[in-house]
Specification:
The protein has 534 residues and is of the alpha/beta class. Helix content is 47%, strand content 14%. The chain contains 26 helices and 17 strands. Strands 2-1-3-12-4 form a five-stranded mixed beta sheet. A four-stranded mixed beta sheet has the order 6-9-5-10. Strands 7-8 form a two-stranded antiparallel sheet. It is globular. 41% of the residues are buried.
Length: 534
């Protein structure tokens, strides 16, 4: 078996193994999660802060009640949103009013604050022995999560997106109107020059909407757009540090950014790039592409994202099949002849535990988390309540929820149980579950979309390599590194250079000079010294 095929099979096995085990164990005797132990006799109130938990838990639906009864707890939801969680949690930390459990992203995004909260005794570490919670322990043993240990302890439980870094690969791809490429007699893209010319050709097509021009490429901000230039500088596109002149530096300090700056300005000035990309929301970018107002889109190719894109397409393109007209564009090789796929840390955001928790309450919370990560818990948040939302036919799950006539799919689980999206994400984002070819996913996401994602994964493993990433640096905290991360926003500055006037390189270099004055060189020196000492 060729090596690329073997690697693909091994990694996909990681994604699908849980699905197989779940089906095999659904009717088997599962290890006792502790829910029936005498240790659960005492009722406990547990306050949990999670994004949008307030509205989701307010109705006290049957699934939520099932979980609370199983663990003899009452969950007190503490509302936070993506726009206010940083401010709220900081305020609660300074006033000693942190909830029992709370979602935050300081280990991911602000390791300096993470270190400070440990130093001041605000958060409680996980027990050293996690064997009573085997599914929690599995997460704690993931290599880049072990890097987050302080004093040989994990002071939070990371919320993983995928169990390996490589499985993030479909979180960034470029979709293209393959039918438009055929119209223009374009077969493949072999260079940035050909890419730019294709986008200009797209932008010159007659628009289907008299009030809006057609654009070549659209994307929701620089965070997505950057992947379109991944052949030019892969670490820029994935936000990674890069080894240059025998030292590690952040991508934005690299000489390779000069080519990125020039290409972005060219795409913008020549009309190949959506002139409004810098304030586009994801939904707006997806809609523009689905409406036929863009020839290419930087987005995700996971099964759930493909379903979203296909559904939006079908709203506007009733005469054209989505899979016939749209494909994933394989970008040109880099200067070394390599293509790259996107990688990221296995996790984003974390569950933190109040330092004032008793051993008994910490145990109860970890039992809850272990259950939510288990096949039994995942079955609950994927299918609902047995006997009400599904039945078992041997090892096969038969969904019995009513069918939505408009979509010909089962009614969404969250319509009946608003708590389910929160319970599904509380311990893990569980993105790998979308790739499973089970009945729920086939009905909700479409078997074609799942197989399309898996086929693209296989292509990437055969023909591309992982974007170089040194994950130790991501979790590394040094005074200067922590400081400069709060003072600058290179992607925002890059947008200003892209849409601005004047020489783009001079503008970009002026920002770099500002970064140096704010301590960039000190940050680089500290990081490299810390890496030498590890």
């Amino acid at each position: 078996m060729p090596r690329s095929r073997l690697v693909f099979v091994v990694v996909i096995a990681v994604v699908l193994a849980v699905a197989v085990l779940t089906l095999q164990r659904d009717r088997a005797t599962l290890p006792d999660s502790g829910a029936s132990h005498q240790s659960l006799r005492e009722h406990m109130d547990v306050s949990i802060a999670f994004w949008d938990i307030g509205n989701a838990f307010e109705p006290k639906d049957d699934v939520l009640q099932h979980v609370e009864q199983k663990f003899n707890i009452t969950i007190d939801p503490v509302q936070i949103t993506m726009s206010d969680y940083n401010q709220k949690l900081l305020m609660w930390a300074t006033s000693n009013k942190l909830p029992d459990v709370f979602a935050h992203s300081i280990a991911s995004d602000s390791p300096g604050i993470y270190d400070e909260w440990i130093k001041h005794g605000l958060i409680r570490p996980l027990p050293e022995d996690l064997t009573p919670y085997p599914h929690v322990d599995n997460i704690a043993q993931i290599p880049d999560i072990r890097l987050l240990k302080k004093n040989n302890k994990l002071y939070m439980l990371p919320r993983i997106g995928y169990p390996t870094n490589r499985l993030w690969m479909l979180e960034r791809v470029v979709f293209v109107r393959r039918d438009w490429m055929k119209d223009a007699l374009i077969r493949e893209i072999r260079s940035f020059h050909e890419f730019s010319n294709m986008l200009i050709t797209f932008s010159n097509r007659r628009s289907s909407d008299a009030n809006h021009d057609t654009v070549g490429l659209t994307a929701a901000g620089m965070g997505f757009l950057s992947w379109a230039l991944s052949p030019t500088f892969p670490q820029f596109a994935a936000g990674q540090w890069v080894l240059e002149d025998a030292q590690w530096i952040p991508f934005y300090a690299s000489r390779k950014m000069d080519d990125v700056v020039i290409q972005l300005r060219q795409l913008y000035r020549e009309g190949a790039l959506d002139q409004n990309f810098y304030y586009m929301k994801e939904d707006d970018a997806v809609t523009k592409f689905a409406q036929g107002l863009a020839g290419a889109l930087v987005y995700r190719a996971t099964p759930n994202s493909l379903r979203e894109l296909e559904d939006r397409w079908n709203q506007y393109q009733t005469d054209t099949n989505f899979h016939d007209a749209v494909d994933i564009l394989h970008l040109w090789p880099d200067e070394e002849g390599k293509r790259h796929y996107y990688v990221a840390q296995t996790y984003w955001s974390e569950s933190f535990f109040n330092a004032r928790l008793s051993d008994e309450k910490m145990n109860r919370i970890l039992k809850l988390y272990d259950y939510l990560l288990s096949p039994e818990g995942q079955r609950l948040t994927s299918y609902g309540l047995e006997g009400i939302d599904y039945e078992m036919d041997g090892d096969r799950i038969v969904i019995t929820r009513p069918i939505d006539e408009a979509t010909n799919r089962p009614m969404p689980l969250h319509d009946t149980y608003p708590s389910v999206p929160i319970l599904r994400s509380l311990a893990s984002w569980g993105k790998e579950t979308y790739f499973r070819l089970n009945e729920s996913n086939k009905m909700n996401l479409g078997e074609n979309n799942i197989r399309k994602s898996l086929a693209e994964m296989e292509w990437q493993f055969k023909h591309a390599v992982a974007t170089p990433a040194y994950h130790k640096i991501n979790s590394l905290s040094t005074p200067a590194k922590d400081k400069i991360s709060t003072l600058i926003n290179p992607l925002e500055d890059l947008i200003k250079v892209t849409i601005g006037d004047g020489d783009p390189l001079q503008l970009w270099h002026s920002y770099l000079e500002q970064y140096r004055k704010l301590g960039l060189n000190d940050a680089i020196a500290e990081v490299n010294e810390a890496l030498r000492q590890r």
